[in-house]
Amino acid sequence: MVPGTAAYLDVETTGLSPNLAEIVEVGIAVFDFDWLTGTILGVRFTYSRLRQPSRPIPATATRIHGITNQMVQGCAIDASEVRGVLDGCAFVAAHNAPFDMGFAVRLWPWMARWSWVCSMRQVDWHRHGFQSRRLHVLAQAHGIQPDQRHRALADCLTGVELLSRQSPDRQPYLAELLEHLPKQVARPFG
After folding, report:
1. 11 is in which domain, residue-wise?
2. For the chain, which end, N or C, has fewer CB atoms within 10 Å of the first or last residue's CB respectively?
3. What is the domain count for the chain?
């Protein structure tokens, strides 16, 4: 076994465009895994914070994630806390990583230094027999019942649990995702 640590990150936002909308919640699940097999060994730490955006949260966004203006009143996310949570992580995973990364890097430009992988696009769900790549549809198909839908930390924990499950090829889905990491990601073996 060659142990590693990574993070699964999810954001909830005021809209769909990282250039116009803002983060209202971030969730991170830091997990340990085996580089050789892709086996997830467990969640080490979780982090979840709300954030008050510069403008009120649109009702359309609240209908999706359930986060209200009252819930975020006076809330902020400490960038140094987020950085501390990610320290020591080899990479960041997300379901629809371009979306989450776009928002995260806009708020915290230093987040661009991490390698990001996408559990929605970089696992071949169609080849594995699934018609949808949506997180909650995949979770349900694997018998995973999340505590909440469209809340950042709940989606992170669902994503980690999904990646820990075995594909029809009898390997954890994380193993397939690891194949998409750029070569420059520091690995503890050759």
Report:
1. 3-177
2. C
3. 1
Please give the Cα distance from 190 to 188 (Å, whole number).
Answer: 7
Residues in the chain: 190
185 inside domain: no
- Whether residue 186 is contained in a domain is answered as no
Q: What is the pTM of this model?
A: 0.96
* CATH number reported for the structural domain that contains residue 46 in this entry: 3.30.420.10
Condensed to tens digits (0 to 9), the pLDDT of residues 48-92 reads 999 999 999 999 999 999 999 999 999 999 999 999 999 999 999
